[in-house]
Write a structure and sequence with these properties.
disordered N terminus, mainly alpha, disordered C terminus
Length: 318
């Protein structure tokens, strides 16, 4: 098993910010796909299903992926790994479903800060109770202040975005999905350590998530009808591939960063990328507001404050 320091902390933090940017890009893509199809359930199945196809090919081609499946199966049989560690994809499925259902009507900025709020709370809880592969981590003052500042950034941004709107109830779904993201990152990190393969951990994540989404889409289709009119724009179908990248990346770095620091860096990447997307290609009816800009600055300050202690030698746990 490779030591936690195999990935330098500074590199893990930078990579975590880039993962957050991919979250925001995927939210825009899946939100637009759900909007054009008119069915967020179908959009979620397409996104997760396409990722599962890519990962299935990877497991077939690369020996490390197949070996990882064997290691995970042995660990579950020996009770070194619990069966619920394999269900991180359910949280991913909820996240992708929320993208398809509410990202377009909320706008990418408001959707992102809703997810951010959930991620921050979840990151604190996962580190506090030792759910991640790095075990239980102490919540030093710098982390607590950083987490509180991140929540302040969320509250400030939301106060400016939702004033006078009737979309507050839509805020609940990405908020819950954000809470699930912290748990997903923690359990996927555990699976990755056991499998010794990010490919295996990501494949299992997409497998459980795809099964859940297909069942949900079938029930939804039976009740309200199936959406069969699919858009022709090819970029709308890249959400699954993007998901493969950021889920695998998170599974690799979470052991070094811890769930809270990973979540805070993802917050920074999400908000900065959402800011850029709303600035360069705003969605109809959701122009970029000053509250979003200031909220992004506060969130970035939160990440810097929370990361300061990580620069001290000997702090990262083996």
């Amino acid at each position: 098993m490779p030591p936690a320091s195999a990935v330098p902390v500074w590199l893990a933090l930078i990579f975590s910010v880039l993962i957050g940017a991919l979250y925001a890009v995927q939210s825009r893509i899946n939100g637009e796909l759900g909007h054009q199809i008119g069915d967020g359930f179908t959009a979620a199945v397409i996104s997760f299903g396409s990722g599962l196809i890519v990962l299935s090919l990877g497991v077939i081609v690369f020996r490390s992926g197949r070996r990882g499946l064997q290691l995970v199966a042995r660990a579950v049989a020996a009770k070194r790994l619990f069966w619920w560690h394999l269900l991180g994809g359910l949280a991913g499925a909820l996240f992708v479903l929320s993208q398809g259902l509410v990202a377009a009507p909320l706008g990418i900025a408001l959707f992102t800060v809703a997810v951010v709020a959930g991620q921050t709370v979840s990151g604190v809880l996962m580190d506090r109770f030792g759910i991640g592969p790095g075990g239980r981590r102490k919540l030093h003052a710098s982390k607590i202040v950083g987490a509180l500042l991140a929540l302040l950034a969320v509250a400030f941004t939301v106060s400016g975005e939702v004033r006078g709107s009737d979309a507050l109830w839509l805020f609940a779904l990405p908020l819950i999905a954000g809470i699930g993201q912290g748990w997903q990152q923690a359990v996927n990190g555990q699976v990755r350590v056991t499998a010794q393969s990010a490919l295996t951990a990501t494949f299992l994540n997409f497998l459980s998530g795809s099964i859940a989404l297909v069942l949900a889409a079938l029930v939804h289709g039976v009740l309200v009808g199936f959406a069969l009119d699919l858009p022709s724009n090819p970029w709308l179908y890249t959400g699954g591939l993007i998901g493969c990248i950021f889920i695998a990346g998170a599974a690799v770095v979470v052991r070094t960063t811890g769930v809270l620091m990973l979540g805070l860096c993802i917050v920074a990447g999400q908000l900065v990328c959402a800011l850029a997307l709303d600035l360069l290609a705003p969605t109809a009816g959701h122009p970029l507001g000053l509250s979003t800009v200031l909220g992004t600055v506060i969130a970035l300050a939160a990440v810097v404050i929370a990361a300061v202690r990580w620069r001290r030698p000997g702090h990262a746990r083996a």
